[in-house]
Amino acid sequence: MLGSNPQGKGRILPADALAVAEAATHLRNGGIVAVPTETVYGLAADASNANAVAKIYAAKGRPDFNPLIVHVPDTEAAEAIAHFDDVAAALADRFWPGPLTLVLPVKDDAKIAPAVTAGLGTIALRCPAHPIMHALLLASGLVVAAPSANRSGGISPTTAAHVAASLGDAVPLIIDAGACRSGLESTIVAVRADGWQILRPGPITAAQIQAVLGTPPLGQSGKGIEAPGQLASHYAPAKPVRLNAATATSGEWHIGFAAIAGDENLSASGNLAEAAANLFAALHRADASDRLAIAVAPITDQGLGVAINDRLLRAAVR
């Protein structure tokens, strides 16, 4: 039946103009909806509506010190919210729309609910490339806060089924556009007075950013939680995870890579983009298997592999 969820929870609608229109109405009325992006599925709400933003935190069980990313339709909308310098402008010009989030000083008159920034003087902004998310921004006329559409700390969702399994009827509407292309959350870059710093690695690498700016990233600052994805334990299955496992032990589901076949393989050819796109779905399957634990083969720690290993390291923390 169109719009039904076989698990009997939140409604799932195929991604089309009618679904976007219905989701836009939900957002304007202060509701929350799950929507696909090119990275992972997001749980969206009107970023200016404090009650709507509170529904995100409640649905996810998210700690209130963890800020949210605000999704905007274009750079002009972002500049109404945050202070852009030449570095921020150059990054937005090169990588937006796309999987790059900028952490910038928030303007005093920005129409953003306080919980979005978790009391910080900065705000995380992204212009998404996914056509459905972009259409929703335009149809609603809003900028939306949208963390990943799953219980806080759990495996990120790259399909509508992952959202339904994690959040159930806590989210009334899920737009299904199939599997997300990138499969990893956006790269988050903080623009500092003295340079730039990666707060969370993602699909856009440090080398790509340095090629635009001409300067290397700053080292870690120890400023605490400034953006999503910085908690030590995150993206985690319910089962324990063992990393750099060339073989599996009895009772482990083995996620392979390249020449290490495993029970399933992120990319038999060793393609890091393919591995990133498959990572969270593989973790979901491993967590749902009859095995007691999960083992993951070594992943090259170069380029996109840095972001993959970041997610795996946080998934393995207990």
* CATH topology value of the largest domain: DHBP synthase
| N-C termini distance | 41 Å
The Cα radius of gyration reads 19 Å
Q: Which structural class is indicated by helix and strand composition? A: alpha/beta
Task: Name a few traits of the molecule.
318 residues, alpha/beta, DHBP synthase, four-stranded parallel beta sheet, globular
Describe the structure.
This protein is an alpha/beta fold. It has 2 domains: 203 residues, DHBP synthase (Alpha-Beta Complex); 76 residues, no CATH class. The chain contains 10 helices and 14 strands. It has an 8-stranded mixed beta sheet with strand order 2-3-7-4-6-5-9-10, with helices on both faces. Strands 11-14-12-13 form a 4-stranded parallel beta sheet, covered by helices on one side. The protein has a two-stranded parallel sheet with strand order 1-8. Helix 1 packs across helix 6. The protein is globular. The termini are far apart.
Task: Please sum up the structure shown.
The chain has 318 residues and is of the alpha/beta class.
Question: What's the arrangement of secondary structure elements?
Answer:
Elements: E1 11-14, H1 17-28, E2 33-35, E3 42-46, H2 50-60, E4 69-71, H3 75-79, H4 86-95, E5 100-105, H5 114-117, E6 122-126, H6 131-140, E7 144-145, H7 160-167, E8 173-176, E9 187-192, E10 195-200, H8 206-213, E11 241-242, E12 252-256, E13 264-265, H9 272-288, E14 293-296, H10 305-316
Parallel strand pairs: 1-8, 4-6, 5-9, 11-14, 12-13, 12-14
Antiparallel strand pairs: 2-3, 3-7, 4-7, 5-6, 9-10
Helix pairs in contact: 1-6
